[in-house]
What we know:
alpha+beta
Amino acid sequence: MKTSLDWLGDFVELSWEPRELSQRLTSAGLEVEGIEEIGKIAAGVVVAQILERRPHENSDHLSVCQVSTGSGDPLQVVCGAPNCDAGQKVALACVGCDLGGGFVIKKSKLRGVESQGMLCSSKELGLDDDHSGILILPPDTPLGTPLSELYHPDSVIDWEVTPNRPDWLSHLGIAREIAAVSKSSIKMPPAKIRVRSGSSVSQSAKVRIDAPDLCPRYIARIFENVKVAPSPEWLVRRLQAVGLRSVNNVVDITNYVMLEYGQPLHAFDLKTLAGQEIIVRRANAGETMVTLDGTKHELNPDNLVISDRDRGVALAGIMGAENSMITDQTVTVLLEAAAFDRSNIRISSRNLGKATDSSYRFARGVSPELTSLASERAASLLCELAGAEQLEGVLDCYPRPWQSEQITCRVAKINALLGLQLSGDEIAACLERRGIEVISRTAEELQIKTPFWRFDLHAEVDLAEEVAQIEGLDAIPEAPAIARLGGIASEDCFFGMEAVRAELLSLGLDEIINYSMWPLAECLSGSTLQEADILRMSNPISIDTAYLRPNLLCGLLKVINHNVSRNTHDLGIFEIGRVFQLQNGKPSERTEIGIAVSGRRQPERYGSEKTENIDFFSLKGLLESWLEARGLRNLRCESAQHPAFREG
């Protein structure tokens, strides 16, 4: 997550330089990937005006410009940019200016014509990556003004955001961390919404949620008299600083608020919505949609869509459809701010191969309570930057209101976990600095309520981590490790497993290692188990890793199939691993050994040309050899040949 220090200053007072700030937040648990300085203009770059432009007599792409800085005689500058038209206010690097990297402007001749400076692009000035033409300044910019007075330097910090902290995917979230460490407070931008009286939003549009399990909240606002135009320069610079390009003022505002608050938004052209209706529903089987990037997607009921009365107009939480996009002719806008089920967005984004800044945030979690704040902020910016007027009222569908968690925090337990000696008031102060509300407190324990932007606080140990981050990880004292003897080394099961591993390797088998998480169908393959016997993950990464394996067969079969399909038939593999089952309603765990052999008996030199499968006999021989080596000669080996091996 890239944040601009200039932008962060809108939310919290910054009293440290970028590197000190990054060090302090790193000690509090927020890691920094890198710091980049942008917008630092070299001395000698001034505002100038192009008085005259004529073609270069010895080049078909160069122009010769007469440029004035407001004092002295005009300067002659040779320029290759296509937009160096007469009358433009531009950035002129004068002779002697050092643009960095050893690039010093000198008086020179280009194709036989003298040039007394250089007209600069944004990229050459280090403002952004745009080098399609020279930088054009506002017409009212005073001539001769050093450009460093117009563009203040900024620092962009790239933060390493862990999956459990989606609130860090915003400037507001990072500002909260800064406020907690610096003991300062958060400043929220004021909302100034221009409301058009006499016209109600409920008379102009309708919102219905048909899948409340996947969409806990949907807020819609309607704006009229919207003027779609280029965004102001300050907004463009902030978006470019963190890696986003400007589109137009309406689209830029939705991106701006997403980066500011962490809430993705979407703007629809209301006139393109059939029936002026928004329906949040599951996609129909075989339904298709063309997204804003021109890609056609075939959907299924596992995908959540935003639709009007007749067709889908957006992939919920991922990307809008091109049939309702904002254009230069748009005058009426429906602004969407919603919360979606993170598991559904994560799975849909992966299955459709469509990853966006929006899906990245929704897949990690966006609070329904944040939705209203972001919607109000975007409404304020639309009124300010696009001349919009909001219709009276808000369409707010909230079928599943958010509930905070209450956690008991024992003072003695926190101190025992951290090795500190903090009082209840000191612990309460640490938690309150992190935005955690303390409902009640005694000398022995606290009752707290989690804030809406924190999805990772569920237990007392989570609160201990919050206290540690505020106190500083360096404040936790060193303590010797506690070690207890559990028996003699020869009784350790590790040595027994190592002996078995060595014996199986000596028989010519190769060891494989598979993950413990599998799809349900493969967990049930080749066994008499039912779905009720399989342990399911509470928060799986995907449907392909949603269940814990009840045996090693699923992994062995997958490896055999992978190799046989690539014409590698002679295999002998084994795996030693943990397996899991539900027995009498309780989970059980044990270690198993699995062996698989695959191969073909080659035809005799004279005789039948038919190849024969030798898997069962090879496996039987291996098992008998292994059991005999372990002194189990009288144990009879009986095995059933699995159909998947027979087919291989």
